[in-house]
Design a protein that fits this description.
Structural class: mainly alpha
Distance between the termini: 40 Å
Largest sheet: none
Number of strands: 0
Shape: globular
Order of helices and strands: HHHHHHHHH
Length: 182
């Protein structure tokens, strides 16, 4: 792939054009391709086109009963974040809660669940729900801790990432560190 979003989009559209009709054998591939096209449009600020492709991707996952795949969680989270970019934070939160229910049903102690809670906490922060956000962010670190299976370097990296978000909304570093410590 390339670092140029325009070129990436061109290549993904070419790949999409040569794929056969959607079937059980290629549904996950076609869904992911649509999700990636949508993600590229999102990165370029073309939210309407991003939404169209992301919704197509999720529809394919649902239609072909692929909602238990890791890809589904990522797609829902990315779509929810797109809705936030589009100024629809209430829909974004609903999307994240939908993803959280799926994750709890399929793989409750996963990295995906930690990532989702981190995204949810960030959204709650931006909405001014600091206490809820801190709870979600602390919980995300619990899931990351399990998923990283004792790898302190990875957990420290995640902790620093979350602390940086807390500092961006005005919490001093010491307060941010204390807020997410369990």
């Amino acid at each position: 792939m390339t670092d140029d979003p325009q070129e990436s989009l061109k290549l993904m559209k070419q790949a999409s054009a040569v794929l056969p009709e959607i079937s059980e054998e290629n549904a996950l591939l076609i869904s992911n391709l649509n999700a990636n096209i949508g993600g590229t449009y999102r990165m370029m600020g073309q939210y309407s086109l991003a939404r169209q492709h992301m919704e197509t991707a999720m529809h394919i996952l649902e239609e072909y009963h692929l909602t238990e795949y890791h890809d589904c969680f990522v797609q829902i989270i990315n779509y929810a974040m797109l809705l936030g970019d589009m100024g629809e934070p209430e829909k974004e939160l609903i999307g994240l809660e939908k993803a959280e229910k799926l994750i709890r049903d399929v793989n409750p102690h996963s990295y995906d669940h930690g990532f989702l809670l981190q995204a949810k906490g960030t959204l709650q922060l931006s909405a001014g729900n600091v206490e809820e956000a801190l709870c979600s962010l602390r919980d995300s670190l619990h899931y990351f801790s399990r998923a990283f299976d004792g790898d302190e370097a990875l957990l420290t990296e995640k902790r620093q990432e979350i602390e940086a978000v807390l500092q961006m909304v005005g919490l001093p570093q010491g307060v941010a560190q204390k807020a997410i410590t369990w």
